[in-house]
Amino acid sequence: MALPGAAFHQKIVWITGASSGIGEALARELARQGARLVLSARRETELQRVADLVALPKTDVLVLPLDMTDETSFSPAVDRVIARFGRVDYVFQNAGISQRSPAADTTMAVYRHLMEVDFFGVVGLTKAILPAMLKQGNGHFVVTSSVAGKIGVKQRSGYCASKHALHGFFDALRAEVSALGLRVTMVCPGYINTPLPFSALSADGQPHNQMDKQQANGMPADDCARRILRAVAGNKREFYVGGREVLAIYLARFWPARLFDLMAKRKGDGVM
User: At 183, phi and psi to the nearest 5?
Assistant: First the structure.
């Protein structure tokens, strides 16, 4: 098994959602391990802050603002990365948005936006990068799903749907490209202490704008990032990270009826 430092040293690593949370933590840890970084998110000022934090030479980091709902921007973005670095070794697809609203109250516009950001944007950028990786004969897609991508959670029906969809697409992609030198790792975090709940969509599309108790008490993002990188370096196809809420994935596999009952009885919107 390759050591994480050896796996990422001088590799070209593109991180979406790099302006905060797990994406920012991955950027810091990858820089420490000697990677060369492409940092993408919507907020250029926050990307620049992260670029300053990682303190890489200017030749080793590219700040590349990207809106995951703008499919027309993907191919030009890939062209910029290839022109700058010549290749892409890893793509950490970490951009996403969550939800906090009952299905009965949630508008279809909210569901469509969740799917655009969390599914279609991820798929679109993957397809834009795929030809370059196939030409190289190697490359690794690392996709941030969620424990909610494996089970159903109250108040997150659209978020769960988008994350479940990612598993279907990337499991199929893995089957298609594994013999061609490409790899896919699906990462399923539980509660990680990040700002994700603040931007989560309410029923009418407004930001949730508050922190969840479970998230506030979750695993630190830096610890999560280190564990993810060890899993990727070890070529894990699927990796679960978090606290006891991760057990819900195993319960869904081996005792689904019990999990269904537990989730229905939950008073709040938590997993376990």
Answer: -125, 155
Say whether 159 is catalytic.
yes
Phi, psi of 99 (to 5 degrees): -150, 145
Q: What integer pLDDT is reported at residue 3 of this predicted model?
A: 46
DSSP secondary structure, 227-259, as one string: HHHHHHHTT-SEEEESSGGGHHHHHHHH-HHHH
* pLDDT (tens digit per residue) in 195-229: 888 889 999 999 888 888 888 889 999 999 999 99
Q: Which of 159, 191, 240, 250 is catalytic?
A: 159
Taking the C-alpha atoms of residue 7 and residue 166, their distance in angstroms, rounded to an integer, is: 25
- Please tell me the pTM assigned to this model: 0.93
In whole angstroms, how far apart are CA 147 and each of 6, 88, 209? Answer: 29, 28, 22
In order of 9, 41, 108, 155, 266, the CA distances from 104 in angstroms are 48, 31, 10, 10, 17
